[in-house]
Design a protein that fits this description.
- This protein has 6 helices and 4 strands, in the order ααααβαββαβ.
- With 199 residues, it is of the alpha+beta class.
- It has a 4-stranded antiparallel sheet.
- Strand 2 (156-162) and strand 3 (167-173) form a beta hairpin.
Length: 199
């Protein structure tokens, strides 16, 4: 029974670790300290391995839980009813929680408040588009974090961050904000602007 508890604990730990890089930006937003968002981005390259390890560990825990026990003739004391932590129900809860954690990057955007603004453009010549190269973004949660911070600035027409391309393309009104302010907003997330190019 102790080995099953260790398997369940290991499965839970690997699932949380695999999603840590994507959960941290949400926690940073909730805590109001967006600079810590990229703290666990170093775990992203290990995510596929941690996910695989989670599935292996939980799969083995389920195998252990469901395998038929051999009847042995002995005068041993029969197993008492297992505690909740040793039950199939608890293992099921841990498995569902692990799947929810592993899928977190795909639905993390729902945790960011929508920053809908009414943009009034006086002169189209005042609109500029700049591409900011950003290091440290590893998932969709990172993109949402960058977009959220940039959209707090006045004069932002459109913000589209991409962790796959390692950039954010920002369309803004030059009379209300500038590239330096946008760069500061991006850097405040914990990710770093490495280059910028006006389009």
């Amino acid at each position: 029974m102790k080995s099953e508890n260790k398997l369940i604990g290991a499965g839970l730990l690997t699932a949380i670790t695999a999603s840590l890089c994507c959960i941290t930006p949400i926690l940073a937003l909730l805590a109001g300290s967006s600079g810590i968002a990229s703290t666990f981005s170093w775990t992203e390259p290990f995510r596929p391995y941690l996910m695989g390890l989670t599935f292996l560990v939980l799969g083995f825990a389920w195998y252990q839980k469901l395998k038929l026990k051999k009847e042995i003739d002995c005068e041993c004391k029969p197993d008492e009813n297992p505690t909740f932590i040793q039950s199939k129900k608890f293992l099921g809860i841990v498995t569902v929680f692990s799947v929810v954690m592993l899928a977190f990057p795909y639905y993390s955007g729902v945790f960011y408040p929508k920053t809908g603004k009414q943009i009034i453009i006086v002169d189209k010549l005042d609109i500029s588009t700049t591409e900011f190269k950003i290091s440290g973004m590893t998932c969709a949660s990172c993109e949402e974090h960058v977009n959220h911070e940039v959209n707090k600035l006045s004069g932002i027409v459109n913000s589209k961050a991409s962790y796959e391309d390692g950039n954010a393309i920002i369309k803004f009104d030059k009379t209300k904000t500038n590239e330096n302010e946008i760069e500061k907003a991006i850097n405040s997330t914990g990710y770093t602007v490495t280059a910028k190019k006006e389009n």
